[in-house]
Design goal:
The chain has 257 residues and is α/β, with parallel strands linked by helices. 39% of the residues lie in helices and 23% in strands. The termini are far apart. The chain binds adenosine-5'-triphosphate (ATP). This is ABC transporter permease.
Length: 257
């Protein structure tokens, strides 16, 4: 059964129809990259998947059941940090468990294990302003993963990072993902990032009335190193093929802007 499915999802903001008739299904354990030009409705679809936004028409299904309210299986990682500046790295990661009623001591123990998993075992008492951008991302990732989501919704999570840090984080994400293969919907307008990470890349058309116009399986071997895989002939072939479709949409989006 599909873990997440959009069935003919349309979202309108007033008269503006952002996405129209979107159908897309994610199998359990699948890593799907969603690419499209700026403003085409990628975040809108993630918000529908998270249950933060109800479609104007159509529906989202989670394990075959219509989604009503917040998606209980989902963890959401945004472009901006969602961590609290006045809490330590450890307490930021522990918070989702505390919100669920777990005692602080127990939550902190588990949080420390997660900080170690993301390579921050030596920084539990640091505050966010004492950490680099990449380290804050790691805190954010640990904070999402500690809650045990089966679906990860990621909205350009690494786009604010410099290229090297970004590649480190992409590899880190793949390493963690290999461990238990959560279902991932990863939004980006960076086609290379989408190909390097995903099992399947879905291309959205330029808005308004955006919808998927192409789906490309990415049969690159795993485990992958995102920096190395970009240099392989198969990667370049996939990039050329998908870019052919995406380029037209990017140009349409710019012409309409
Ligand atoms: N709450 C809202 N009210 C009105 N219009 C909105 C609202 N949210 C999004 N939109 C519009 O819907 C369209 C899709 O927005 P969305 O943020 O989903 O695009 P995106 O593909 O994620 O963009 P980007 O790549 O720039 O982040 C945009 O034209 C945006 O202006």
């Amino acid at each position: 059964m599909n873990l997440l499915e959009f069935r003919q999802v349309t979202v309108a903001f007033g008269d503006y129809v952002a996405v129209e008739g979107v159908s897309l299904a994610l199998r359990p354990g699948e890593f799907v990259g969603l690419v499209g030009p700026t403003g085409c409705g990628k975040s809108t679809l993630l918000n529908v998947a998270a249950g933060l936004l109800a479609p104007s028409q159509g529906e989202a299904l989670v394990e075959g059941r219509p989604l009503k309210g917040l998606n209980p299986l989902a963890g959401y990682l945004f472009q901006q940090d969602a961590i609290l500046p006045w809490k330590t790295a450890l307490d930021n990661v522990a918070l989702p468990l505390v919100f669920r009623g777990r005692p602080w001591a127990e939550a902190r123990r588990e949080a420390l294990a997660w900080l170690e998993k993301v390579g921050l075992g030596r920084f539990p008492r640091h505050f966010p302003h004492q950490l680099s951008g990449g380290m804050r991302k790691r805190v954010g990732l640990a904070q999402v993963l500690i809650a045990g989501p089966r679906l990860l919704l990621m909205d350009e999570p690494f786009s604010a990072l410099d290229v090297q840090t970004r590649q480190l984080m992409e590899n880190e994400l793949l390493r963690l993902w290999q461990e238990d293969r959560k279902t991932v919907l990863f939004v980006t307008h960076d086609l290379e990032e989408a190909i390097a990470l995903s099992d399947r890349v879905v291309v959205l058309s330029a808005g308004p009335r955006s919808r998927p116009i192409g789906e490309f399986p990415i049969p690159l071997p795993r485990p992958r190193d995102v920096a190395e895989i970009r240099l392989t002939p198969e990667f370049l072939r996939l990039h050329r093929e998908i870019w052919e479709l995406l380029r037209g949409e990017v140009m349409r989006a710019h012409a309409g802007a």
